[in-house]
Amino acid sequence: MKIALIGATGNVGTRILAEALKRGHQVTGIARDPAKLQARDGLQLVQGDAHAPDTLTPTLAGHDVVVSAVLFRASDPALLIEAVRRSGVKRYLVVGGAGSLEIAPGKLLIDSPEFPALYREEAGKGKVFLDRLRTVDDLDWTMLSPSALLTAGERTGVFRLGGDSLLTSAEGKSWITYEDYAVALVDEIEKPAHRRQRFTVGY
Which of the chain's ends, N or C, has fewer CB atoms near its CB within 10 Å? Predict the structure, then answer.
C-alpha cells in the first residue's frame, strides 16, 4: 500500500515508518525536517508541516491511506481533516492519546486527579481532535489511543485491543511500547476493523 505518514520523525512516527517498511509498504515520510530520516528502499522523504496543512494536500494525493502522528498541540484538527479531504484520500488514521479513554463510565483518564499536569494540554487537545473526527462522515477515519504509558521497548506483537476504556493489566499497569503500538496501527491499515471508531491497545 501507499502510506502518507505525517510526523514521520517523532517517537511514534519512526516506529510506524519502520513497521510499514518492514511489511513491504511504500511510505511517504512527511516531516518539518526530513533530513532526520535515513533514506531507504520504499521511503520517499518530503518536507511538510502540520501547521500549514494546505501545503500537505498535493503530497497526500494518490496515497491509499494518510496517517497523522503529530502532537495535537502542534496541529489543528479542522485543517488537517480538510487537507486529507481535499487530497482525495478516503482513509485517515490518527495517533491518539490516552487521556480521552474512560477509566469508569462517564469518567475520562484526563479528569482523574492523578493525571500529570505536564500532559494535560496535549491530552485535552487530543480529546478535541477525537470529538471533531466523530463528526466526520465522508472519510474512513480511525483513531488509535495507546495505554496510559507509551514508551520505548520491544516489538512483541502480543497485546490486547479495546474500545473507549483504558486497558489495564492484572498488575494494575496500563502501558504499551511504541513498537507494539506501531504493529497495531499497521495491522489496522492492512485489515480495517475500526472504521469511524476510536480503539485502544495495551498489554
Answer: N
| SS3 at position 123 | helix
Q: Which domains does the chain have, with CATH numbers?
A: 2-202 (3.40.50.720)
- What span, in angstroms and rounded, lies between the C-alpha atoms of 176 and 112? 20
Q: Hey, is 114 helix, strand or coil?
A: coil
Whether this prediction's pTM lies above 0.85 is answered by yes
Question: Looking at the chain, how many residues does it have?
Answer: 203
Q: How far is CA 147 from CA 97, 101, 110, 176, in A?
A: 8, 9, 12, 6
State the CB neighbour count (10 A cutoff) for residue 113.
4
Q: What is the pLDDT of residues 106-115, one digit of tens each?
A: 999 999 999 9
> What is the rounded CA–CA span in Å between residue 79 and residue 110?
25
